[in-house]
Amino acid sequence: MAPVQISEVKGNSREHRTATHTHIKGLGLRPDGTAERNAAGFVGQAAAREACGVIVDLIRAKKMSGRAVLLAGGPGTGKTALALAVSQELGTKVPFCPIVGSEIYSAEVKKTEALMENFRRAIGLRVRETKEVYEGEVTELSPEEAENPLGGYGRTISHLLITLKAARGTKKLRLDPSIYEAIQKERVRLGDVIYIEANTGAVKRVGRSDAYATEFDLEAEEYVPVPKGEVHKKKEIVQDVTLHDLDVANARPQGGQDVMSMMGQLMKPKKTEVTEKLRMEINKVVNKYIDQGVAELVPGVLFIDEVHMLDLEAFTFLTRALESPISPIVILASNRGLTPIRGASDTLPPSAHGIPPDLLARLLIIPTHPYGPEEIRAIVRARARTEGISISEPALEAVGELGVQRSLRYALQLLTPASVLARVGGKMNAEVGVDEVTEATGLFLDAARSVGALGESVSGYIS
């Protein structure tokens, strides 16, 4: 089977899990690498942020590939926030793949396969190709029909006439009917700016010409200027894909005209394992592109939260995968101390963070520490601002105090219910006061009070 052209590979990037950490915009470091007290949504954890800043510099210098970092600290000390801040610092062009340790245990594929899939998601390939293209604004689009050569009453499109306008003139093209199908898929109409690759016939709609920007007031369109230069030109096209995108594109059956292949395409695609042989072939092609200077490898970040949930088999596979010539940067996070290694509790003694000693020796460990009272209050204030909650200063103090006494997560979770209570109570601007915070505290218990209440009410049922 011939490998799929990289230009045909569609990206399959996953959304970042940033719902809880939308206020995190970066590490908040000064140019000299030292941490601001309160910057980019981050409060405190100065030493951990500075250490992550060094890791970001190593990743940018491409001297971190195949290494791993462990973020170790108690629950709610900002481990996931640090990993997401690293991804924000690296930018959108560097792949960032966040998973949870238990996510690899799937009924459809082996855990080692799921782990390798996420490894490949976190390795990017930036391909630079100089292509001969026709680029411009569509001013004429008319398919010409002819009698169907197979007979019958139908007519078929014999060729397509298209006129493209650029800054330096226009060009009328007579194209193959297969390109008309590609133009229909892209939903191209008059006034759109498109480019057509001369060699492959691939069509890409860039956007609507900005000459039409004032035509409609409420048009959800992306307006682009008419391309500079001639219609027919050589253009450098940069495409970012991950190795997983290449794996999936080449593993998927390319189809055929028989009934079985068509049925296979119509049925819901099942998650299938990509063979090691196929991955080796793709690696060869990727290495060839890199040697030719056509492509550049972009080692991304694989973030594995709750890493103590992995078992001995997964840890062994992880250790081997880190030694691979093509490997991403792996950031692990754990809130456990000395704990048994999953899958080896009978044969091996408990280990730090539930990670085998041979893998621990490869890790750079960054500790995170519990927040102080002032830091908790600053985090509560930042979170209220991010969620658009209007809250009085005494109420902020009350929520901050709950964060100190109970837990930071409990305090942050009370903000939205308290805001709802203020709105239901008909308060001006729905401002949260101390009364709403007290009411929310009575409605929603923290873990310690919940256990105490359960112990008192059903003490006869507790062993």
TrEMBL record:
GO molecular function: ATP binding; DNA helicase activity; hydrolase activity
InterPro entries, per the entry: AAA+_ATPase (IPR003593), P-loop_NTPase (IPR027417), RuvB-like (IPR027238), RuvB-like_C (IPR041048), RuvBL1/2_DNA/RNA_bd_dom (IPR042487), TIP49_P-loop (IPR010339)
Domain AAA+ ATPase intervals: 65-383
Catalytic activity of the protein: ATP + H2O = ADP + phosphate + H(+)
Keyword Ribonucleoprotein in annotation: no
Keyword Transcription: yes
Segments for region (Disordered): 1-32
Xref: SMART domains: AAA
UniProt subcellular location: Nucleus
GO biological process, one term: chromatin organization
GO-annotated cellular components: nucleus
Record keywords, A-Z: Activator, ATP-binding, Chromatin regulator, DNA damage, DNA repair, Helicase, Hydrolase, Nucleotide-binding, Nucleus, Transcription, Transcription regulation
Highest taxon of the lineage: Eukaryota
Enzyme Commission number(s) from the entry: 3.6.4.12
PANTHER family for this protein: RUVB-RELATED REPTIN AND PONTIN
General function of this protein: DNA helicase participates in several chromatin remodeling complexes, including the SWR1 and the INO80 complexes.
Family affiliation: Belongs to the RuvB family.
Name this polypeptide is given: RuvB-like helicase
